[in-house]
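Researcher: Re-running this chain for the archive, since the previous output was lost when a drive failed. Same request as before.
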Amino acid sequence: MTAHKLKTHCPQGHEYEGKNLYVYYSVQKKAVQRACKACKSKASKVRKQEQLKLKEKQTDSKRLESLRRQRIYQLKKLNGLQNSD
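Model: Regenerated C-alpha cells:
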C-alpha cells in the first residue's frame, strides 16, 4: 500500500470521505486518484475569477485600441482638411 492511499485528509485538512471525496482515473498517471471536492471547488472559483479579470483586461485593451484608431482617423481627416486650405 502506498503512502497516498493511507492519507485520510487533503493538505488543507479536509477529510477524504463521503460527499467531499472525488474519485477519478488519471490517464497521465494511469491510476485512480482522489481529490477533495471542497478544494477543487475553491480552485475552480479562483480560476473562474482570474479568467474574468483577464477577459476584462482584454476587453479594455480592445476598447482602447479602437479609441486610438478613431483618434488617428480623426487627426488624419483634420490634417487633410487643413492641407486643402
